[in-house]
Amino acid sequence: MVQHPEILKKAQAEVDRVVGTHRLPDMHDKTSLPYIEAIIQECLRWQPVLPVAIPHQLTQDDEYRGYFIPEGSLIFANAWSILHDEKAYPNPNAFNPERFLKDGVLNPDVRDPGVACFGFGRRICPGRFMAKESLYIIISSLVAAFDFTKAVGPDGVPITPKTNYTTDLLNHPKPFLCSIKPRSEERALQVSATANDL
Asked: Is 178 annotated in some ligand binding site?
């Protein structure tokens, strides 16, 4: 959100329009927040947590594009490559939630990134539904409650964070500086009240 303030502003406008400012979003609001859902889809696609999916083992000989693959072979799906396929996702290196929307609603013609980022077949992630619901409540609440802006250096110049991610088994951003402030005193109180309820 720090690197894409225009996306943050659109998301905040959607949350304010649908939810108002008197409360934080909840699960009942989800179907009315398609831009938030598009952000979640794009987060899953743009930088998948598991760039190389959990391996599967062939139970019988197989062939793929003319290549013989013997029974017992371990197969790794390259989720990152699948989710950066230019045919499915034009300009794949750009963070662009709008790719998942058409006329203000989720576009069913755009491949759901969950198809690749949560694994495949019988070993698909059993927690995928909880993960997506958690992402929704976290992202919608953060967008509703806070402004995310560039940190300011000692020279008074804003610091533009770099998009640096780890190259480990699990993909996550490297630490960066930013400024996070409540959008209003009312939002700060809502966050405190929610935290106290946990």
From this structure: no
- Total count of domains within the chain: 1
The answer to whether 35 and 11 have CB atoms below 8 angstroms apart is yes
Q: What is the DSSP letter of 121?
A: G
Measured between alpha carbons, how far is residue 164 from residues 24, 47, 167, 192 in Å? 31, 11, 9, 31
Tens digits of per-residue pLDDT, 125-146? Answer: 899 999 999 999 999 999 999 9
Number of neighbours of residue 104 by Cβ within 10 angstroms: 8
Q: Is the pLDDT assigned to residue 17 strictly greater than 90?
A: yes
Q: Please name the amino acid found at residue 94.
A: A
Torsion angle of the four alpha carbons 35, 46, 90, 95, in this order, in degrees rounded to the nearest 10: 60
Q: Which domain range does residue 170 map to?
A: 5-197
Structure-token pair, residue 181: 């402030």
CA 158 from chain centre, in angstroms, equals 25
Report CA-CA distances (Å) from 64 to 68, 70, 78.
7, 11, 15
Name the least confident of 32-41, 43-52, 58-67, 187-196: 187-196
CATH number for the domain spanning 122: value is 1.10.630.10
Q: What is the pLDDT at residue 166?
A: 84
